[in-house]
Amino acid sequence: MDETVRVITPWVSGKTIVDIGCGSGVLAERLLNAGAKKVIGLDIAPAGIAAANARLRVSGFDPSRHEFIEQNLATHPETPAADLATGLGFLDYLTPPEIVELFRHLRSPLFFFSFPEGQWSVRTVLHEGYLRLAGCPVFHKYSRPSFDQFLAEAGRLEHRQYYQRDQFRFIHNIPGLTRR
Q1: Domains and CATH numbers, the chain
Q2: Does position 139 have pLDDT exceeding 80, yes or no?
């Protein structure tokens, strides 16, 4: 999460951000602290939405600067309009057709998403173990070529880039941001 905030901070100030898979609102809080005008968080879990609302209430943020919505992107891929869409760890749970539909319905011109590596590594083994222990029924791993295919099918391949920092991998279309 630190890397995400560090990398996208120049594009956050004064902007509306949609945080897909917002969980308990940790990234939303960090984005607001970095100067976001508003953060709209989406998550499938009602407990995550409640925790996110509580977190930002306790942190003292003006309620007009954040909104958290319970939404299943697998069945309702439309996202609210925003300047930038972020998401950490949610693509693990979407199938290829669901990812294509998400990108088709993404109403943000810019995006920055982490994605699970489709290659064997210690990190992928640990991540898979964590998801199994957490009782996650389904999780997927993808490669760069598979994301190229998803984006091409969704009509969003233009300007896509990959960013890698240590074991973390991201797909984005933020101009001027490169680190392969």
Answers
A1: 2-172 (3.40.50.150)
A2: no
